[in-house]
Amino acid sequence: MIKTNICDIFDIKYPIFQGGMAWISEATLAAAVSNAGGVGFISAMNAGVPYVREQIRKCRALTDKPFGVNIMLMSPYALDIAKLVIEEGVKIVTTGAGLPASYMPDWLAAGIKVVPVVPSTAIARRVEKFGATAVIAEGGESGGHVGELTTITLVPQVVDAVSIPVIAAGGIGDGRGIAAAFMLGATGVQCGTRFLTATECQVHENYKKKILEAKDIDTIVTGKTLGHPVRTLKNAFARSYAEKEQSGNVPKEELEKLGAGALRNAAVDGDVAQGSIMAGQIAAMVRDELPAKDIIERMFEEAEKRLEGASLCLV
Ligand code: TUI
């Protein structure tokens, strides 16, 4: 059995977090992951207080296990959501796309465990000083907003830089990825893309189908010129966006406008030609739609076998 400090700290069976995915990870998926023994997360994305409050209450009705809220710090409502999680008694918060420093004193005073996503050792050290419980070292193999470094280079460097537990993210799609993450010094993993085809994931069927059909080289990163690179599946939208961005002739404001709403178009409306299909580089490893419980159990069963087998190469 695999059991790490992440299991003890968060009172869970398997050391796995479900990544907060805007327009995708809502109460049903989060509760399914939590009921399966990981930690499920509701994505607060760019939503306001009423939506996030409703999702928190729905999740609480669906599980008595620990779950959390993922706060995207570029959201115009980040401060409102920061207050809401305290008001609603949420116990775990993950953050992304920025530094959570200004919110942390109040969260910590409320007893919330804060686990920021970090793309570098400098940011990992800073959030450790602010009182983070653990960090998520997310490599650029992940879907959505990505950092510069890969998971295999970022995780061990963050492990060396901080004393708090490190959760590895980006490019982890099966038990081999989990075993590798542990070898790098992480004691937990966060997966997003793998859960896109969970039975309980409410993302549009067209989006799921695109993930199930994806090939290894089917993702692309756009938005570097805007300062927030985003990894998506290649489709008509991504190709046209990349062309416009590379041409240098399209003003940044226009590119920002083009991107806004594109994820919702794909995830909610199912427009997988003109929408943004955010996904990580392991999309091609996702070949079945399964309940979150089966996904997690299979991944950890395989990780255990891989870790046991690792000693076989020693002579
Ligand atoms: O946040 C994510 N992934 C996301 S957020 C998102 S919504 C979005 N939509 C359109 C454009 C941009 C975002 C889709 N996917 N992952 C966590 C993550 N956080 N990756 C990188 C970071 C990060 C980057 C900089 C964390 C901290 C940080 O601090 C530097 C600073 O100066 O703020």
Question: Describe it for me?
Answer:
This protein has 13 helices and eleven strands. With 315 residues, the chain is of the alpha/beta class. The strands form two sheets. An eight-stranded parallel β-sheet has the order 1-9-8-6-5-4-3-2. A three-stranded antiparallel β-sheet has the order 7-11-10, with helices on one face. Strand 5 (113-118), helix 6 (121-130) and strand 6 (135-138) form a beta-alpha-beta unit. Helix 2 (27-35) runs parallel beside helix 3, helix 6 (121-130) packs across helix 7 (151-161) and helix 8 (175-183) crosses helix 13 (292-309). The two termini are 25 Å apart. The model has no long low-confidence stretch (mean pLDDT 97). Ligand TUI binds next to strand 5 and strand 7.
* Helix and strand element order: HEHEHEHEHEHEEHEHEHEEHHHH
The ligands found in this model are: ligand TUI
* Percentage of residues in helical conformation: 40-55%
N-to-C span: 25 Å
**Biggest sheet descriptor:** 8 strands, parallel
Work out the number of β strands.
Answer: 11
Shape: globular
Rounded mean pLDDT score: 97
Structural class of the secondary structure composition?
alpha/beta
Amount of beta strand:
5-15%
- Rg, Å, rounded: 18 Å
Low-confidence stretches: none
Count the DSSP helices. Answer: 13
Arrangement of strands in the largest sheet: 1-9-8-6-5-4-3-2
What is the multimeric organization of the chains shown?
A: single chain
